Amino acid sequence: MFESNRDYNVCVRSAYLIESQVKHTPGIELSLEHEDHGTITHTLWLTPKTVEGVRNALAAMGIDEATFSRPSFLENCNNHLAGAQCSINTFEEEYNGKRRVKVQWINPPVTPSAGGPAQLAKRAAALLSGKPAANDHAIELDSSDIPF
C-alpha cells in the first residue's frame, strides 16, 4: 500500500487512452507498480492547462516530444509506455468522506547515490561541516534545492 507524501520508483504496467464521461476530456490512464507497495492508478488528463505537465510526465517516462505528439502514440500508448520506469510523489486526498493516496507528480526515476549510504553520509557530513569531502564533487545549493 502506498503512503502519502512519499516518493516511489515505479514501473508502468499499462497505459491506455481514455475519455472522461462528462466532458469527454482525453487522458492517459496509467497503472503504476512498485514491487513492495502494489499498484496505483493515475490519469494524465489532457487539457490546455495541463498539457505542459503531461509533456513533462511523458518525458520523465522516456518518451520524447517527436513520439508523444503523434496520434499513433496515443492510439498505442501502452506499446510505448509499458515497462517504463519513473518516480512518483504521492499525496492524500479526501473525497466524499473517503481518504485515499493519489499520485501528485511523475518524475524521472531516482537512482541511489553512488557509493551507497556510506558515501551519502560522508557527503552530508561534509556539507554540515562546511568542508568539501575529499574526492567528492562540489555541491552548490540555491533556493530551488530547499525541499520545503
Task: Explain this structure.
The chain is α+β, with helices and mostly antiparallel strands and 148 residues long. The chain has a domain at 7-107: OB fold (Dihydrolipoamide Acetyltransferase, E2P). It contains five helices and five strands. It has helices at residues 51-60, 65-68, 71-75, 77-81, 116-129; strands spanning 7-19, 26-34, 38-45, 85-95, 98-107. It has a five-stranded antiparallel beta sheet. β4 (85-95) and β5 (98-107) form a beta hairpin. The longest helix is centred in the C-terminal third of the chain and has 14 residues, at 116-129. The radius of gyration is 19 Å and the shape is globular.
Topology:
Layout lengths: L6 E13 L6 E9 L3 E8 L5 H10 L4 H4 L2 H5 L1 H5 L3 E11 L2 E10 L8 H14 L19
Antiparallel strand pairs: 1-2, 1-4, 2-3, 4-5
